[in-house]
Amino acid sequence: MKTCFLLLTVVPCLAFHQAAAPPTRRRNTRNADLIARSASATIQDEKATTTVELPPVLQDIVDERAEFQRNLGKAMDTLRKDYPYILHRAPDYSIYHDDIAVRDPSGLQLVGLSTYKKSIQFVQTLISFLYSRERSGLQFRIVYDFCRSEIRVSWHLELHNKLFPSQRPLHVDGISSYKMDVASGKVIEHKIENLLIHNTPVQPPYGIFGMMREEMSPGVALGGTC
Known about the structure:
Largest sheet: 7 strands, mixed
């Protein structure tokens, strides 16, 4: 009799507990949905508040800086592509200003894009005539110097004499710095500095061509003075 009474007491309680459970789960699900929607709305509000219109003067500065960064990236990418073939192939001149100035350690200065093109063509012709293309090579490293606000390319050139194969190769090290013109976004100055021939600093008045002439056999002359 007691057993029957216990069963009659416990079973309804269990049934009531099982019947009451689903509403609790539904309430938890609704709460989670509300929390998720609230979090999403908060994120959208934060995104909206981060978009702030700048005063025209500041906006012009931001736009100018962004344009400069794009032009700088283009110039560095172009130099990376040009340098491996700079001794034998014309570079991409689209990154250079029409009034570009070129300086070397001798103090020589060339002005104008057309003059710059002719000087590069002359160097390429000279090297192809005197040195072996297959045995010669160029290594370089390019960085942007934020302190100087210029692109800097450190390079090492090894040239093997074509006319006198037994002669020791010519080792030339230097740094080419490129300054950008903010207004046009093009390279306005190319300066060659820290020039070394066989680890010996090049001193004025000698330039690149003069040092090449010194490395030639006494029977070979390039003519002129540099």
